[in-house]
Amino acid sequence: MRNRFLKQAGFSVALGMVMAQGAMAQAPDKVQSPDWTGVWRLKGSPAVMDREDGRSFVAGTRDHPPYNAEWEKRYTRDLVRGEHQGDANFPDPIVDTHTVFCAAGMPHLMGTPFDYEFVVTPAKTWIVADKETRHIYTDGRKFLPDDERWPTLLGTSIGHWENQTLVVETVSMRSDVWADTTPVMFSDKMRITERIRRMDANTLENQMTIADPVAFTKPWTFTKHYTLMKKGTWVSEPEKCGGPEDRNPIVNGRVISVMPGVK
């Protein structure tokens, strides 16, 4: 009798575990996905990540990440080099990586002047801006082991929902990508946490925290906002880079802005 009871109890526990695992597997399908459709644009200036009123391509414009002494010295040096990109008379200029790669990468992608579209489903969210698409998995998967991942421009993103807030962790990003129009960069140990939510009918908020145990003395936190454009707005066409059809061609080492209709 006792053995029979124990067997029944063991079966009940096993059945409960199977049911719990099944419930976990089905959890993404039960998420009530928010409606973030439409065309969105960054609020404020895309010049720097940690403020919305930065001035693009103006000498002295910079971020204020919590760099340690070594990385602050490097950033201060590269700021001057970046301000002289295209200057044939400057001995050691550097070119912004958005121009080099024809892509923003992360975290720069979340602070560009390009139009944004958010495609939200229970198991996955896509963020599309210009030619780049982020894939944020919310199906319960885990990151692969370190030795099975390698750095990419956008990294690897896994998220989960806390009510109507999408919480995202991103790892495995390249360490040679500028975060904005200044040469603010990070080590390959960087990790980004985002909390993306709709504040009101016309505003999305992204609270971003970057942790970097190699370059920082503490995590770096800032907030980006995105404004919903008028219904029927056409999303901007992806730019072409590096050739004669480039809307902003590089002439004699300088980026030239060409307005529509001008030849």
Written description of the protein model:
By secondary structure, the protein is of the alpha+beta class. It has a single domain, classed as Calycin beta-barrel core domain (Lipocalin, Beta Barrel). It has helices at 2-26, 69-83, 97-101, and strands at residues 40-42, 116-120, 124-129, 132-137, 156-162, 165-171, 191-200, 203-211, 220-228, 250-251, 254-255. A 9-stranded mixed sheet has the order 1-9-8-7-6-5-4-3-2, with no helix packed on it. The chain has a two-stranded antiparallel sheet with strand order 10-11. It is globular and about 60 Å long. It starts with a helix and ends in an 8-residue tail after the last strand. Residues 1-26 have low confidence and may be disordered.
